[in-house]
C-alpha cells in the first residue's frame, strides 16, 4: 500500500512539474536593457533555464550588454531572442519593441522584467498565475513600499496619487517594472511614451479598455545599481508633465 501511495505522489509531482514547464514555455519575458553588462547575462540565463522564453531588447547600449546577451543566447538558443535598437530610444519604446516581438513569436502571456537585478526570478510565475487561472487580464507586481529607500518611497507614493487623479485607477505600485499581460490584450494598448511615463500609460490603458487586473506582492532587490534607476523626484516631474500634455493632445 505504501508503495502505491508513493507512486501516486511521484506521479502527481511529475504532472505538476510537467504542467509548470508547459506553462512556462507559453510565457515570454520581455527584458529591456540599457548598459546592463553587469547583470544581463546571469538574469536572462536563469530565466531561460526555467524554460521561459526571453525577449531581450538592447536599447542602444554603449557597453557590452549586447555581446554578453549574445553569449547567453548561445547557451539557450531556443529560449533567448535578442533584438537591438541602434540608438537609445527609452524604456517605453523598448517595451513596445519587446512586446510586439513576443506577439510575433507566439506568446500566450507576456511579462515585463527589468534587467538590473531588482526583480526576483521566482516572481515571474507569481505574476502570471492569475492570468493562467483566468482571474485577470493584467497583473501588476507590487513592491512593498516600506522596504524602499526613502527617496524612492516618496517619489513612488506621489506617482501613485497622481496616477489615481489622472486615470481613476487605484493601484499599489503604478511604477512597477514587473507586470504580466494576456497576449491577446496587448494590441489594445496605446502606448506613446518613449520613457518612464510608459508605466503610468499601462494604468491608463487598463481603465480605457476596462481590463480586469490584479496586484500581487513581489520581492525587490535593492543594490546601488537598482537604486540609481527608476522613479525619483525628477523622473516623477517629467512623468507629470507628460500626463498633463496627454490631456490636451
Folded structure, characterized:
This protein is globular. A 7-stranded mixed beta sheet has the order 3-2-1-4-6-5-7, with helices on both faces. The N and C termini lie far apart (71 Å). With 249 residues, the protein is α/β, with parallel strands linked by helices. The chain has one domain: Spore Coat Polysaccharide Biosynthesis Protein SpsA, Chain A. Helix 2 runs parallel beside helix 3, helix 6 runs parallel beside helix 7 and helix 6 runs parallel beside helix 9.
Order of helices and strands: HEHEHEHEHEHEHEHH
Mean pLDDT: 84
Helix content: 40-55%
Give the CATH class: Alpha Beta
How would you describe the oligomerization state of the chains in this entry? single chain
Question: Which regions are unreliable across 5 or more consecutive residues at pLDDT < 50?
Answer: none
Beta strands, count: 7
Describe the protein's topology:
Elements: H1 2-25, E1 27-33, H2 40-49, E2 53-59, H3 65-75, E3 80-85, H4 91-104, E4 109-112, H5 123-132, E5 138-142, H6 150-167, E6 179-182, H7 198-208, E7 213-217, H8 224-227, H9 233-247
Parallel strand pairs: 1-2, 1-4, 2-3, 5-7
Antiparallel strand pairs: 4-6, 5-6
Helix pairs in contact: 2-3, 6-7, 6-9
Amino acid at each position: 500500500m505504501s508503495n502505491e501511495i508513493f507512486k501516486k505522489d511521484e506521479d502527481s509531482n511529475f504532472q505538476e512539474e510537467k504542467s509548470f514547464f508547459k506553462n512556462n514555455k507559453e510565457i515570454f519575458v520581455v527584458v529591456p536593457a540599457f548598459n546592463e553588462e553587469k547583470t544581463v547575462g546571469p538574469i536572462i540565463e536563469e530565466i531561460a533555464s526555467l524554460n521561459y522564453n526571453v525577449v531581450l531588447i538592447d536599447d542602444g547600449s554603449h557597453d557590452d550588454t549586447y555581446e554578453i546577451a549574445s553569449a547567453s543566447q548561445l547557451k539557450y538558443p531556443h529560449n533567448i531572442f535578442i533584438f537591438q535598437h541602434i540608438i537609445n530610444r527609452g524604456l517605453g519604446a523598448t517595451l513596445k519593441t519587446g512586446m510586439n516581438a513576443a506577439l510575433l513569436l507566439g506568446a500566450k502571456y507576456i511579462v515585463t522584467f527589468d534587467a538590473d537585478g531588482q526583480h526576483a526570478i521566482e516572481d515571474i510565475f507569481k505574476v502570471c498565475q492569475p492570468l493562467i487561472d483566468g482571474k485577470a487580464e493584467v497583473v501588476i507586481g507590487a513592491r512593498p513600499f516600506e522596504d524602499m529607500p526613502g527617496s524612492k518611497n516618496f517619489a513612488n507614493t506621489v506617482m501613485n496619487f497622481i496616477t489615481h487623479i489622472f486615470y481613476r485607477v487605484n493601484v499599489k505600485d503604478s511604477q512597477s517594472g514587473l507586470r504580466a499581460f494576456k497576449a491577446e490584450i496587448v494590441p489594445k494598448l496605446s502606448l506613446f511614451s518613449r520613457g518612464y511615463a510608459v508605466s503610468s500609460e499601462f494604468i491608463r490603458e487598463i481603465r480605457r479598455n476596462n481590463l480586469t487586473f490584479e496586484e500581487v506582492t513581489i520581492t525587490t532587490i535593492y543594490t546601488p545599481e537598482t537604486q540609481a534607476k527608476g522613479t525619483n523626484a525628477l523622473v516623477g516631474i517629467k512623468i507629470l508633465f507628460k500626463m498633463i500634455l496627454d490631456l490636451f493632445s
